[in-house]
Every structure is written in structure tokens, then in C-alpha cells.
Amino acid sequence: MAPFSLRIKKNCVLLNCIQTTHPYVKVWLQFGDKRVEKRKTAIYKCTLNPVFNDTFAFNVPWEKIRECSLDVMVMDFDNIGRNELIGRILLAGKNGSGASETKHWQDMITKPRQNIVQWHRLKPE
To answer: Name one GO biological process term (predicted).
Structure first.
């Protein structure tokens, strides 16, 4: 039972906002509907055009990989109240947030030793 690492990079997420934002990215590893592990980027203060270039690794046994999904959320940090969701995508084999996210997931599964890079448009909640 060898572990399988998933690496996700976020590059140049553009935000079309009028107000100042403090964006960061949160990634949840999920098994079915259950959230298992979370990773976050640093908060980029006072920027509308952040560039996220972070790598996240999750150790998942190969036989469990088809049950997993990655919930990638861009959040706006709020020092006083609740952090606000700017947009998200779900990378999953069956219930991805769109056809391109599902295809991306399938490409990552079928080519486990290869970096699969693809742009995705954030979807509002």
C-alpha cells in the first residue's frame, strides 16, 4: 500500500472586486462527503490580483484515490467577522464542479507521476 501524493498549484487567481481583499486559498481533501485534511496558503493582504504558487501534498493510499476529491476555495480573510468565499472548484472523479474539473481529476489519476497543470474558472457558491 504505497502512498500517493497529490500536488496542486494555484497560479494567478484574478479577483474582480471593488473593495480591498485579503485573499488566500484553502484546499480540503475529502473522502466522499467527509473532509479529512486541510491546507492553506498565506494571506495576501490588500490585493486584488494575487499570485498563488503553492504546492500541497496529501498522502492517500492508491486504492483509496478514486474515493477522494479536492475542494479548492479562494477565501477573503476578514479580521473581524467571518471569512468570505470568493469562489471554488471541486476536483473529483464523479461529482466535480464541472466537466473540466472532472477531466482534470481523471488525468491526474491516470498519470500519477506526471504534473497535470490546468486552469479553472472559479465558481461562486
So the answer is: calcium ion-regulated exocytosis of neurotransmitter
